[in-house]
Write a structure and sequence with these properties.
globular; Rossmann fold; binds flavin mononucleotide; seven-stranded mixed β-sheet
Length: about 190
Amino acid sequence: MRVITLAGSPRFPSRSSALLEYARDKLSARDVEVCHWHLQNFAPEDLLYARFDSPALLALIEQLQDADGLIVATPIYKASFSGALKTLLDLLPERALQNKVVLPLATGGTVAHLLAVDYALKPVLNALKAQEILHGVYADDSQIADYQYTPAFTPSLQLRLDNALETFWQALHRPQAVVPSLTTQGAVHV
Ligand SMILES: Cc1cc2nc3c(=O)[nH]c(=O)nc-3n(C[C@H](O)[C@H](O)[C@H](O)COP(=O)(O)O)c2cc1C
C-alpha cells in the first residue's frame, strides 16, 4: 500500500502539517509506504503561472498514479481551503485521484468554518475523480498543543485522528473495483 500525504499550508511548521505528521507516523507503523509532499516542494512561480511541465509537479503526478490513497491537509483561509493548495490541485490531471481513497484534514482558528472542507475542498477532490472521500478531521487551533516540534493534540482530537486513520486504513484494504486508466480503457474497446 502506498499513500501520498500532501501538506497544503504555505507555512512550515504548521498546524495542519502537524496532523499529517501524526498520520504519517501512524500509517508507517503499519503496512503503508508513505510519500510526503508539501507546497515548498514546488517553485512558487510554477504554481502561480500554471507551469504544467514543472519537474516537481510531474514527479507528484507519477507518484499519485501508483498510490492507493491520499491524505491532504489544509489550513482554513477566508472560509475555504488555502489558495496555495488550490494552485497545485488546479495543475493535476482530471483523473489524478481515480481509484484512490482520500482523507481530508483541516485546521482553522474557529469551528465556525468546520464545513469548509465539505463545501470547498471535497468538490475539488470529486472533480479529480477520487474514488472515496472520507469524512475527514477538522481541528481548531486550541486543540493543537504543539506543532513546532513533536505534534501534540488534545485527547479528543487525537481520538478523532486515530478513528479517521483506522477508517482510512480499512478503506485502503477494502477490495475496490479498479477503473482502468484512460489508455487501458482505449485497449478495452478495441
Ligand atoms: C490569511 C489567513 C486567513 C485565515 N482565515 C481563517 C478563516 O476564515 N477561518 C478560520 O477558522 N481560520 C482562519 N485562519 C486561521 C488558520 O486557519 C489557522 O490558524 C490554521 O490552523 C493555520 O494552519 P497552518 O498552521 O497549517 O497554516 C486564517 C489564517 C490566515 C493566516
